[in-house]
Design a protein that fits this description.
alpha/beta, five-stranded parallel beta sheet, Rossmann fold, 499 residues, 2 domains, GMP Synthetase, Chain A, domain 3, single chain
């Protein structure tokens, strides 16, 4: 087993932050039950002008759990935009002993069909806007809609029953969430995250970021994504912080919400902060309540960080994580400790990290040398759903091989410089080039194609497709873009036909 020769970050460890935390070995839904007991009538969620207390959310989740149990739900797919219903349904599925499969609300029918079949989901909970997508996907299982009932479709409200006690689970082994992530293979892989994986990461994030009862967090990230799920939803439940939840991110609305509700904490992706900075320069808002912001999902330019901090007065930190780690492994510690620009920070409590050689992955490298970043800790996934070979490749000797190329400095701060994996990171999302290529090959005019990542100052990267058309065939870039848009959630732009 590979062992780090030194842990230099411990010499720079922030005062007041525990190096190790005693995490309760409880089901993930314990976070909600505990929040209801401790914080009760405090506001947990503000959504489109309406407030829900921690007790409101907990009671609704326990009542819906009984309805899901009557349906025989064991794997519950959630296909909806951000809303309080997402949180209630998520925890209801866990309370009744099921596994949650959160789906990107932008998925097309073909993609929805793949996710539901691969995950072996038996119930889909969907908002009205996406019900037709589920129908077009050919789904024949149980469906519950956030809205009025329809023939053959339950309404979530009519599934509410007598509150049920939480099911017994093994937090260390039982899977709470199957989270799909893009990879170098054609189809996304399901990441199995246990109750303990997610619980420990939520608690660690709350401690690292000093989230406390009464603080206000902007919920601009999508909750289906592991970043929003852990940092926004779960960490806030543990801390007793209020989430001002957005259905989807819109910069003007986000700035108005920060100003109106005196938001203290904002987790986001680089594109959000770039958009906010541009808007604030043209239309100032009162950002004085912001204590710190965290940018994840991709690199952010140091000039953006400096300008954003100058305009808002808030700290803008960078961190690092991946879905396979629930997702957070590194952070620049806000308020406490040394902050290094361009760095993703140091490992969070109970997390080990190391740089190893790219050839064998077994030789630890000293500070300053570039290699593959590997991590281990309580947040590391159980494995990939139904993919033992890929699991064995990713987790070796207890270490998760991230596929990211990085280096560590003398103080134990890490810097990510490239990716070993052929995945495009666009606006914080992982996009599989192979999946986009497979779709383009379905077009009758396409002979050959290759999708690559193109650097973009706003999105980080955008997919770019190079296409060779069949002899005698015609297709415009616009036609190919539309063809892809109809079949996948994220489209490569621009597409350039080549001869």
């Amino acid at each position: 087993m590979v062992e780090p020769p030194d842990r230099p970050w411990l010499r720079s460890w922030p005062s007041g932050l525990p190096r190790s935390i005693e995490y309760p070995r409880r089901p993930l839904y314990w976070l909600l039950d505990r929040a209801s007991q401790l914080y009760g009538d405090d506001a947990a969620i503000v959504f489109e002008g309406r407030e829900l207390s921690f007790r409101d959310v907990c009671d609704a989740a326990h009542r819906l759990a009984g309805g899901l149990r009557r349906l025989g739900a064991s794997r519950v797919a959630l296909f909806m935009a951000n809303s309080p219903h997402f949180i209630v349904c998520y925890y209801a599925a866990l309370i009744e002993g099921g596994t949650v499969i959160p789906l990107n609300p932008a998925l097309r029918p073909r993609e929805v069909a793949y996710h539901l079949e691969d995950s072996e989901a038996d119930v889909v909970v969907v908002d009205e806007e996406r019900l037709r997508v589920v129908e077009e996907a050919g789904w024949r299982g149980e469906v519950a809609v956030v809205g009025p009932p329809r023939p053959g479709v339950y309404a979530v409200d009519e599934l509410m029953a007598e509150p049920m006690e939480g099911a017994e689970v093994d937090p260390m082994d039982d899977v709470a969430v199957i989270q799909y992530t893009a990879g170098t293979t054609a189809e996304p892989k399901g990441v199995m995250l246990t109750h303990f994986n997610l619980l420990s990461n939520a608690i660690a994030i709350a401690e690292v970021c000093m989230l406390r009862r009464g603080e206000v967090q902007l919920g601009a990230l999508p909750l289906y994504h592991s970043y929003g799920m852990t940092n926004v939803m779960n960490a806030s439940l543990y801390a007793g912080a209020k989430v001002v939840l957005m259905r989807r991110f819109e910069v003007e609305e986000a700035l108005k919400l920060i100003e109106r509700y005196r938001v203290n904490v904002w987790f986001g992706v680089p594109t959000m902060f770039i958009a906010a900075l541009d808007h604030l320069r043209r239309c100032p808002h009162d950002m004085s309540s912001l204590r710190f912001c965290n940018s994840g999902g991709g690199p952010i330019a140091e000039s953006v960080v400096e300008d954003f901090e100058g305009v808002t007065g808030a700290l803008l930190m960078q961190g690092y994580g991946l879905t396979e780690a629930s997702p957070v492994t590194h952070s620049n510690i806000p308020v406490r400790g040394l902050v290094k620009r361009g760095s993703v920070g140091m490992p969070i409590p109970d997390t080990d990290a190391m740089i190893v050689d790219l050839e064998t992955g077994t030789r630890p490298l000293p500070p300053g040398e570039v290699g593959e970043l590997i991590v281990r800790g309580p947040q590391v996934m159980k494995g990939y759903w139904r993919r033992p070979r890929e699991t064995a490749e990713a987790i070796r000797g207890g270490w998760l091989y991230t596929g990211d190329i990085a280096w560590m400095d003398e103080d134990g701060y890490f810097y990510v410089v490239d990716r070993k994996k052929d995945v495009i990171k666009c606006k914080g999302y992982s996009i599989s080039p192979r999946e986009l290529e497979d779709v383009l090959y379905q077009h009758p005019a396409v002979k050959e194609c290759a999708v690559v990542g193109k650097p973009d100052p706003v999105a980080g990267e955008v997919p770019k497709a190079y296409v060779v058309l069949k002899e005698g065939s015609k297709a415009t870039p616009e036609e190919l873009i539309k063809f892809v848009e109809e079949r996948v959630a994220i489209t490569p732009q621009p597409i350039k036909p080549s001869s």
